[in-house]
Design brief:
The chain has 223 residues and is an all-beta fold. The protein contains no helices and 22 strands. This is Anti-ECFsigma factor, ChrR.
Length: 223
């Protein structure tokens, strides 16, 4: 399957407009944002676990990055409440599920194959002032990419250069940008040599973003 697989295009989706599609596991449904591949895929997805649902044990050969949006995600390594950002690097393994149910934003097969850095960050931490009207919470940075959460004050004008592309997921609030209106669960992908120009709404906005990674976008290596 190829879905929004042309990384030279601007893509803006409102995830709450996308219907849920059943996964191969009972009780687990998905809203697909982009995808290259079938069940083994370079993918960006919103995933919903019904209460007491579980995926079978598996290894993330290409790594896994996710944000818990609602509920509590769980595996044998611990509980991950809403607002948790996690990176499980290539070769990591787990048996994911949720006793109470949860919704996560997840990215698969988008790591440096040699990355072995495990990351867990509470995104409720207080951001640091970074630019006028903008607070910054760093999540991860290496030679390939930077991942962070920005808090935009009411009416803030925001400009972000994205010479190697960027992705944005609105967690709270709203904003407008050249591509259109942004609201909670809006997902925006900008191609290489882009610049985001946005203005936060009256309530401000809180936005997860990943910068610099699109030159490495490719289908997963499947033997």
């Amino acid at each position: 399957m190829n879905l929004n697989a042309d990384f030279s295009e601007i893509v803006l989706l409102h995830a709450d407009d996308i219907p849920w599609r059943a996964s191969p596991m009972p009780g687990v449904a998905r809203r697909m944002l982009d995808r290259i591949g079938d069940e083994v895929a370079r993918a960006t997805t919103i995933v919903r676990y019904a209460p007491d649902s579980q995926f079978s044990a598996h290894t993330h050969s290409g790594g896994e990055e996710f944000i818990v949006l609602e509920g509590v995600f769980q595996d044998e390594h611990g509980d991950y409440p809403a607002g948790t950002y996690v990176r499980n690097p290539p070769t990591s393994s787990h048996t994911p599920g949720s006793a109470e149910g949860c919704v996560i934003f997840v990215k698969l097969w988008q790591f440096d194959p040699d990355d072995r850095t495990q990351v867990r960050v509470d995104m409720h931490a207080t951001p640091t002032p970074d630019r006028p009207g903008v607070g910054l919470l760093p999540l991860f940075k290496d030679a390939r990419e930077e991942v962070r959460v920005e808090t935009w004050a009411s009416g803030a004008d925001v400009a972000i250069d994205a010479p190697d592309g960027a992705e944005f997921l609105v967690l709270e609030g709203d904003a407008t940008c050249d591509a259109g209106q942004l609201r909670p669960l809006s997902w925006l992908r900008l191609p290489i040599r882009s610049r985001l120009r946005a203005k936060a709404g009256k309530s401000g906005a809180r936005v997860w973003m990943k910068l610099g990674h699109l030159p490495y976008a490719q289908a997963p290596a499947v033997s």
